[in-house]
Write a structure and sequence with these properties.
The chain has 333 residues and is α/β, with parallel strands linked by helices. The chain has ten helices and eleven strands. The strands form two sheets. It has a nine-stranded mixed β-sheet, with helices on both faces. The chain has a two-stranded antiparallel sheet with strand order 2-3. β5, α3 and β6 form a beta-alpha-beta unit. α4 crosses α5. The relative contact order is 0.17. The N terminus is likely disordered.
Length: 333
């Protein structure tokens, strides 16, 4: 789950790799309104049934071992797997999509890129991806087993653009790529930060309308380029995470994020394995949903958790502490 740290020369290759694709679109989504329910406990499914381009199954091999020990750290549900190698014999490299089943009848919808942790199977995040898709998002999960480097956000951007321009694809002409939020877990969280630091013109070589408007790295490996990030970013950490202790992303990422609004929230009792759990026991999924609604729609209820003098995330009972930088303090309520 921790990431490899081979990467600086990769950025030079990105511009060349990025010239392989097409053009973009624009969006709309369902209102986010948790009412009086704390955002950390906001896990009800949204109004849309969901579908996925990859079926999931009970995990075996490496992932069965993960499922055997995660209950010791508080997980309530076994994570599923796709057939991507080594969980099965399908390619270990690809991009899976989650989307509302009724997307054909919807306006153009925003996208979420979610990058798995190092060695994680894309199906391990099925519960969270379905939650977000049920609220009107298309979720793209790129994977290559390492899941920790710059090629992950580039692969996702390329796959989203191709799907949007393919008349035979269920997502054809349904994506608003100008409202894309990038996130991920562990090594994938670090890759999400790096993806948010890639210059916009690189993505626009893939699709002229592609924009990353925010990021949500979760328990991210503390070796990323947060000092280059220029979009609002919410760092999520866990107080019981012994693999990436909460102080590491705080010191090496949040504190160095000086170019854009930045928030950090440490979830009380969350371990490094909490993002694999069902959404009723994974507060990070609900916090992420509020963040998506705030960034994508400017939803006032969701915004109240992050903006204004009395921003509510700090007082949520599951949050051990929440901080924001000076740029975040100045965001309009």
């Amino acid at each position: 789950m921790l990431r490899f740290s081979v990467r600086r020369g990769i950025v030079a290759v990105l511009a060349a790799a990025a010239t392989l694709a097409g053009t973009g679109i624009s969006a709309s989504a369902e209102p986010y309104n948790p009412g009086t329910v704390p955002v950390s406990q906001y896990a009800p499914t949204g109004p849309h049934e969901t579908a996925s381009t990859a079926a999931t199954y009970p995990c075996d091999s490496l992932y069965a071992v993960y499922n055997a020990f995660t209950p010791l750290f508080g997980n309530h549900s076994a994570m599923p797997c796709t057939r991507a190698f080594p969980a099965g014999l399908e390619s270990p490299v690809g991009v899976n999509f989650y989307y509302p089943k009724d997307i054909a009848s919807m306006s153009k919808v925003p996208a979420v890129v979610w990058i798995p942790g190092f060695s994680n199977n894309p199906g391990n995040y099925d519960a969270s991806a379905r939650l977000w898709a049920s609220h009107g998002f298309v979720v793209a999960i790129p994977y290559d087993f390492v899941n920790s480097l710059y090629e992950m956000p580039i692969a996702a951007a390329t796959a989203l653009s191709r799907a949007n321009h393919d008349p035979g694809n269920v997502l054809h002409d349904k994506l608003d790529l100008s409202r894309t939020v990038i996130g991920g877990h562990s090594g994938g969280g670090g890759a999400a930060i790096d993806g948010a630091s890639i210059p916009p013109n690189v993505y626009q070589q893939i699709d002229p309308e592609y924009r990353i408007i925010g990021a949500v790295p979760t328990e991210s490996s503390p070796y990323s380029t947060s000092f280059l990030v220029n979009v609002p970013t919410l760092y999520l950490t866990g107080s019981a995470d012994f693999i990436v202790p909460d102080f590491l992303p705080r010191w090496t990422e949040f504190e160095l994020n000086r170019n854009a609004p930045a928030f950090i929230a440490c979830v009380r009792g969350a371990s490094h394995f909490t993002p694999w759990d069902d959404v009723a026991h994974n507060p990070m999924a609900g916090i992420t949903l509020a963040w998506l609604r705030y960034l994508v729609d400017g939803d006032k209820t969701a915004a109240s958790y992050f903006t204004g003098a009395g921003w509510k995330l700090r007082g949520d009972p599951v949050v051990q502490y929440a901080l924001r930088n000076e740029a975040a303090d100045k965001l309009p309520a």
